[in-house]
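For consistency, the fold was encoded as tokens, as this record shows:
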Amino acid sequence: MKKSVGFCAFVSAALCTACGPPPQEFASGTAIENVAVVDVAAGSVTEGRTVVVQGRRIAAVISPDDLALGDAVERIDAAGGYLIPGLWDMHVHELSPGFEPALRVYIANGVTGVRDMWGGLDVSREAQQAIAAGERVGPRSIVAGNITDGANAWWPGSVIADTPERGRFVVDSLADAGAAFVKVYSALEADAFAAIAERAAARGIDVAGHVPFTVTAGEASDAGMRSMTHMFGVVESCSSNDVDVRALRAEWMADRAEGGEFTDPFFNPDLYRAIVDAADDDGCRELLARLAGNGTWLTPTLTVLSSMASLHRLREEDDPRLQYMPQPIVASWQVRMPQMAADTPENIEARERFFDRQLEVTGMAAAAGVGILAGTDTPNPFVYPGFSLHDELELLVRAGLSSRDALAAATTAPAEFLGATDSLGTVAAGMLADLVLLEANPLDDIGNTRRITLVVANGRFFARSELDALLEEVRRERAGG
């Protein structure tokens, strides 16, 4: 009797195996074989997978035992490499009518998406259409259009919102023109900023950018500001003299508007000393909890903040990435800002101390549950399109984030922030085919994001040799031939 039961169990198991689900069959597409898939959200790796791409989507992420590939399927051996979602730079100034965008350089660095904080909507639409048609190489993008600032605007060409009524009009105009969000700037008055935030919420678009000098970071967050850049307003509110700092900046801006002597309200060593000397970690933690509770995100742009602290050194270096930049931009990087012209040891120390504080507050923000987005602010001085996104990730780790959390800031976090988790930020079936293949595991060392062997941008494949060719094309063009 026991032998009969055992025999039946054996036969039953054999029949179940034979009647198991058939392998998934693919007659077309591209299969990336022998690949380790990185799940950024879980912080884990699944080895020995095959990822099938058809058109612009991932069709399958599967064990090769459960897969049948037709002869027409192109097969790529990943040699055990690590596949991550395409990277995003959430703070660039690239799609501008003022210079040729460095779109190919982003792809060569695995950056398949960008958020342009002050770009031309027409330039963006034209570029995206050409990229979609296969006529150009570049990342997908979301664009703000013009900066929105107050009457005493910092940048020429900004859209002026000097009253609440004008603020609401500007929001409507930008939304109607197809802007993805409203980029606000430092000189906005508090009532105009409040009107912009209220109107943007009604129109269903985000407010992002600088915390205006006239409000605190907490007030801006309460008003609905979705993301804050450069830690502006945040580091100040993490000090006990925030009110005095904001009043001084308002005074400087008013004096500037009347033609007074230039005093930089952003990069000023005296201001740095005052903010750092009054650092208040208890108050900072209260602020960061407030931001986290409101769902306000931070884009620290540590790369540009580091650059501002190190201009005395960077101007003397011969960085090989300079060869990929337009010459007018490179020349502009050598122009010294009035408040940073005096590179005395004391001023250099003040800049370095302030950057250390910016790093510290970034780490505190991440620990408090504030969403962090990776962004660089290229092409500000010595911040390079594509290349510097990897600098940013390493600086986030220096600030205290884990390698996983830093990688998330350029993958899963942008997908969540953009409301696009159904199509971006994960290597999974049905997602858009924005992928980067690495030689080594970025969860072990975030620097491994630089070790790129393959990029897939919206379903278009670029082997390492093709990525190198893109960079060479740009280098020759920048050199004039």
Remarks:
- The longest strand covers residues 44-54.
- The two ends are 87 Å apart (CA to CA).
